[in-house]
Amino acid sequence: MRAKPLFVVAGAVGGTLVATAAFVLNGNASEAPKAVAYRDVNKIAAVLRDHGADGCEADATRVECRHEGRYVAGTVLTPGLTMDAALSTWRTGVAQSALGEQGPFAILQGPNWLVTGPGALMREASQELGGRLINCDRPYGACR
After folding, report:
1. Given pLDDT bands bounded at 50, 70 and 90, which one contains residue 6?
2. Cα(119)–Cα(104) distance, rounded to whole angstroms?
């Protein structure tokens, strides 16, 4: 048997570890490649409208709408705002709470964007946008 160069073995092991980590962290290894990064919110806004969101107001990096009377928003992260910082704020549900909403909501997380709204809408949007779905039981409650 011929000896394999060390970097070939290390590369195979590293690739396996990365794939395993993606599966463990996402719960589904097919989710990660499906979501893509966006430069603006145009695609996100279009998907939300296609699934019944209305009254949408948008600028280049943020869209806010309503869906069956509930708050819906999406943002593309701008330089200086990290995903961890944005996600930790969005998980609180502060925007929903400020509007008097106390029910469950969900967050859809992509590589450089977030979308929030009712769980059913976020599940529908995830079919087109991809990403990781995070369900929250209420503003300032638990998210998983």
Report:
1. very low
2. 7
- Displacement of CA 30 from its chain's centroid (Å): 14
Structure tokens, 84: 């961890």
Measured over the CA atoms of residue 73, residue 79, residue 81 and residue 83, the dihedral's sign is positive
> Do 65 and 49 meet the contact criterion of CB atoms below 8 Å apart?
yes
Please tell me the predicted confidence (pLDDT) of residue 80.
94
Q: Rounded to an integer, what is the distance from CA 98 to the centroid of its chain?
A: 21
CA distance 14 to 143: 31
Amino acid at site 96? Q
Tell me which amino acid residue 20 is. T
Compute the chain's Rg from CA coordinates. 18
